[in-house]
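Researcher: Next entry in the queue.
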Amino acid sequence: MGKKIVLISSTIASFFTPFMASAVNVAIPMIEKEFEMDAILIAWISTAFLLSTAMFLIPMGRLGDIRGRKRIFILGLLTFSISSLLCSISTSGIMLIAFRFLQGIGASMIAGTAIAILTSAFPPQERGKVLGINSSAVYAGLSLGPFVGGVITQNFGWRLLFAIPMLIALIPILLALRIEEERIDRKENFDLIGSALFSIFLLTLILGFSSLPSQVGTLLLVASILLLAMFVYFESKIPQPVLNVGLFRRNLVFGMSNLAALLNYSATFAVSFLLSLYLQFVKLLSPQEAGMIILLQPVVMATLSPISGWLSDRIEPRIVASIGMALTSISLFLFSTLDSRTQIEFVLVYLFLIGIGFGLFTSPNTNAVMSSVEKRFYGLASATLATMRVIGQAMSMGIVIIIFALTIGNARISENIPDFIIAMKSAFAVSAILCLIGVFASLARGKIH
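Model: Structure for this entry, 449 residues:
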């Protein structure tokens, strides 16, 4: 019964964070209209959440290893819920972005501990299956997000979307209270300096990346490189680092699997964001209709994830994951051909293909990462993988912000449809190239069986 409680609690928690992400994407055109936000600012509604999640994921994962994963997990659920309520009462675009940043901190606590708690509770021969179930919950959240988000936004307004996590989070909180806390070594110290360097590095990286091609953006990127060098040097010198950088040097499977995840999410996260804008601004569909179409991709992902997780227990994860990345790259090239004349049937076919690709990649890649480290590093490995995912997602939105800045500028998308189409096509083309590079990283990881 103990393992089942862990699985249910972790799975529900893993459901509602992506649910919110995908639901908010459908609501963005309505938010743009209410707060009169320009193209760059509306992209920050998603980017602020991803930035704070990435900044705190590894520190929270490490803190969970030292102070107790259950404690951090529950605190994360509470933080996410309260900040969601604050988002729902925002009175300006800037206020909404600020509360989304706070919401990301709660998400970092959840993501930094959920997979570690789950992996620790199940033996190696069952991990692929339960990780597949967990991935299915993620994609179920992504699946229901566009549809439910579209229905709620169209009929009740976008604010109700942010009140939903307050109710959903009660279930995993009550279940998590029944989970027995793992034995932990409280003698270890938390690496505060390393955590600060890492968080500031990510802050300057994402801000700099999203500010290109301005001089400020260039200076921030240079600062981020210097901070990364300082972080790696500092972490290699202390006995209890927040991130064991030696794992990347000594463990090929761990290093390349994380790189593959980074490239995959850098290429794919902005797909639903861009398609939501395309379907509502260019094809003139309602939020509910747009949500129904975007629904196809995560439904295919959710269906395939348990199967691909099961396959990765029996054959090399790198083979399954690499095939998935190749299919994803092909679909992104197809998305780059969209324009105002494209029929909706083609959009559905492209979504089906990218759903297959993503479904084949995620569970095997997660299995490879978690199986490549010792049990005492599960929290770190889980948080590192989640950080790669969120950095990738933030970079994906960073690509969109750069292209929006170059093509649309400070104008509103609804008033510049031709420029938006050019920006969208360019973003998909860049993403396809990134995903193609990721195929080689996935193949280079080596064997785990």
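Model: The mean pLDDT is 81.
Researcher: Noted, moving on.
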